[in-house]
Amino acid sequence: QHPDGEVVESPLPVEARGLSLGEFVKTPSFWLLALMIFFINTLNMGIQQHLIPYLTDLGYTSTFAANIMGLYLGMTVVGKLSLGHISDTRGLSAGMWSFTVILAAGIAMLFGAGWAVLAVMFALVYGTGNAIQTVLPPLMTARCAGIKHYAVIYGILSIFSTLGSAIGMPLSGYLYDWKGNYDMAFAIYIVLAVAGMIMGMGALKRSKYET
Q1: ∠ CA(197), CA(154), CA(129), 5° rounding?
Q2: Can you give the pTM of this predicted structure?
Q3: Which CATH architecture has domain 26-205?
């Protein structure tokens, strides 16, 4: 109601659009997103939980290793802000492929982390690229499934995040025990990063709600 007493009708609510969980599970996008989330969380936990042991194995002090870990975690803030901006201005696909390149480049730097400068560069680059893990999955879920049943759908997809996290840490440990180093684990995680990008791009391409 206006100050002069005129009654104004309330605008009609906009009905949320989207697929139900049952409908979305039957689409390729659901499984592609699930694989993307699984791959990214596998590599993230496989690296994060073994980073300090890896650096101390290279001869660094525990203090230096902890500082590298702190720098890497701090850079995720920069990565999240940057990836959010790119996704808003250039689209989710651009954010996906560009940050996958950054993520994979960061992992590759671990092979040369015996040089302190590359250890620091790893923290800067990988920390930035690691924003993929938290920024893109919810945005891509909304894009691919709509928002009507977003909460339950993303809750189910988060199960694959938990599975990946549960597998990554023992996978790195097993490969280290088998090979005596982390080289194979890091190589696998680069492959998983690229595979995750392919899965994510495929999910977006098949998105019913992409505009």
Answers
A1: 35
A2: 0.89
A3: Up-down Bundle (1.20)
